[in-house]
Amino acid sequence: MREPLDWIESWYKYRSREILKKETNPNYTGHISYNDFITEYISKGTRKPFAKIRTQYDFLKLCNGAIGVDQIFPMENMGLVEQFLFEKTNSKIIIPRINQSPTKDMTQLPPELEDALRQHLAIDIVVYNFIKKHKTFQNSQHGEEFMERLAELD
Description:
It is a single chain. The chain is mostly helical. It has one domain. It has seven helices and two strands. It has a two-stranded antiparallel ribbon. The longest helix has 13 residues, at 122-134. It is globular. The model has no long low-confidence stretch (mean pLDDT 88).
């Protein structure tokens, strides 16, 4: 899992790639500011296509809200994934860095917009902070504790 604010910034950059710059591509973000992108992303109504991005938690959860995968690692520590895979396969596996978003000058979000984004991504932030604290998420070991932590958000 990726740090949530870095993750959404990466989506913005990814969708600003020149290859997407076509008048007919509704996902292109190269023509709008990051502030406008975030404003649209966190809006409560129907979002424009470029901002229709689910949260990371949406991809991880089951219908009851529990995490539906066995293991989650923080993306910035792929060495943990490589070690996990080595232990499972007894083979050294190196995970290359690919699919990197283009470099783009980013302006810092105004504090009130960043606060609104953090609120929108609150569950992702809880999951990510949990993973960082424990170095990984193992459903069999952390599932109940995580659900208790999630209940505190309500």
